[in-house]
Amino acid sequence: MIEPSPDTPLLTAENVTKRFGATPALDGASLRVHAGEVLALMGPSGSGKSTLLHCLAGIVTPDSGRVTYTGTDLATMSDARRSALRRTDFGFVFQFGQLVPELTCLENVVLPLRLGGVRPREANRRAATLLERLEVAEVASKRPGEASGGQAQRVAVARALITRPRVIFADEPTGALDSLNGERVMQLFITAARESGAAVVLVTHDVRVASYSDREAVVRDGRVRAPEYIA
Amino acid sequence: MRILVIMSVGFALLGLLERGPRHGYDLKRSYDDQFGHGRALHYGQVYSTLARLLKNGLVEVQSEPGDGPERKRYAITDAGITDVERWLNQPEKPDVYLQSTLFTKVVLALLTGRNAADLLDTQRSEHLKQMRELTTRKLHGDLADQLICDHALFHLEADLRWLELTAARLDQLSERVRSDAG
């Protein structure tokens, strides 16, 4: 992997467009994400913020424009390389944890490490430490269905952090939680992300969630508003 | 950092005196501990407030031998207790001044052909800046700090929700403003 210089953004979107059928989702969106920063992507429903997140994460391929990670255009990478990147360098937290219901919480957290070939003992040790750090050690041997919404979301955060990713993409991570549980998840999530040095791209319509960020970018009508947000 | 705490110092001092007579210095320390949140009360304000309470019969002085203000112990009177009680039972008037200022700015921007969306974005950014400061303070603060920050955060959140709603209705508002202006 090529290390970016301190001035080089970790991740960029340059004039990205994307349509779903006749519906334009992104219409020339540009954005830069720097290493270690917490960036909130805000904007009304349907503004394109989630699509922008999916493009940045290499889940969705833009119709035009480009997305670069450490200077490399994601479109020039093979599917296998992009998949590997998503497993090693990126972490994901979604509104509903999307944990595997048949596995225990610990096994869910361990999963990305096991897929990456880390030995069970080492993987379990790291997962247990993270669950402890996120104050959900007590659900380690439970299945996600037996955990509360707030606990399950903290397990999902642990799973996102376990590979020590460079970027964590979070799409409405507290959207399904009440405000008290949401606050706790954000506190633990952002504190842990900052300690690990990961950048966080946080899609949210909730300004209290956005207040955990270093800066915000507002997406409206498929574009990132105001030039200062790009820098 | 400035925290939005709207509280009458006089009532706070009276309330503290309800727990027992105090010297001015002790009273100031209690106030700073409970309500100061990094902004200590000036001695001048303590003694001028006590003088006003004394004049209004809400506190009385229990003198001790010796000279100087530190020899004076202040005690709350029955009238003082009634006042505290009334103040606590009286709800505060909900404050909407900011919305009216922002509304005026938005309408003026639309009327004068300026970019009202930019104005709202700039304001959002400013609000978020303050929310970040409060959130950071909350992360490192004790329970009292957290509750006071939460109060300010909820107010800022309400403003921001209004900003979003207004941003979504700018076209409508623009038509209305222009037709009213003739």
Short descriptors:
heterodimer, A: 231 residues, alpha/beta, Rossmann fold, four-stranded antiparallel beta sheet, 7 helices, 24% strand, B: 182 residues, mainly alpha, three-stranded antiparallel beta sheet, 8 helices, elongated, disordered N terminus
Explain this structure to me?
The complex is a heterodimer of chains A (231) and B (182). Chain A is of the alpha/beta class. Chain A has one domain: 3-Layer(aba) Sandwich (Rossmann fold), CATH 3.40.50.300. Chain A is 34% helix and 24% strand. Chain A has helices at residues 49-56, 79-88, 105-115, 120-133, 149-161, 179-196, 207-210; strands at residues 11-20, 23-33, 38-42, 64-69, 72-73, 90-93, 167-171, 199-203, 215-220, 223-224. In chain A, the strands form 2 sheets. A 6-stranded mixed sheet of chain A has the order 6-7-8-3-9-10, sandwiched between helices. In chain A, helix 3 (105-115) packs across helix 4 and helix 5 (149-161) runs parallel beside helix 6. Chain A starts with 10 loop residues before the first strand and ends in a 7-residue tail after the last strand. The model of chain A has no long low-confidence stretch (mean pLDDT 91). Chain B has helices spanning 9-17, 24-36, 43-55, 78-89, 97-111, 116-140, 143-168, 170-181, and strands at 22-23, 59-63, 72-76. Residues 1-7 of chain B have low confidence and may be disordered. By secondary structure, chain B is mainly α.
Widest sheet, order of strands of chain B: 1-3-2
Residues in helix, % of chain A: 25-40%
Coarse morphology of chain B: elongated
Model regions low in confidence, pLDDT < 50 over at least 5 residues of chain B: 1-7
Terminal Cα separation of chain B, in Å? 45 Å
Q: Biggest interface in this structure?
A: A-B, 14 and 20 residues
What oligomeric assembly is this protein in?
A: heterodimer
Strand content of chain B: 5-15%
Query: CATH fold name of chain A, please?
Result: Rossmann fold
Share in β-strands of chain A = 15-25%
Give the total of beta strands of chain B.
Answer: 3
Q: By helix and strand content of chain B, what is the structural category?
A: mainly alpha
Total separate domains of chain A: 1
Mean pLDDT of chain B comes to 84
Helix segment count of chain A?
7
Q: What's the CATH H-level superfamily name of chain A?
A: P-loop containing nucleotide triphosphate hydrolases
N-end to C-end Cα span of chain A: 24 Å
Low-confidence regions of chain A: none
Query: So what's the overall shape of chain A?
Result: globular
What is the residue-mean pLDDT of chain A, rounded to a whole number?
A: 91
Listing every helix as H and every strand as E from the N terminus to the C terminus, the arrangement of chain B reads: HEHHEEHHHHH
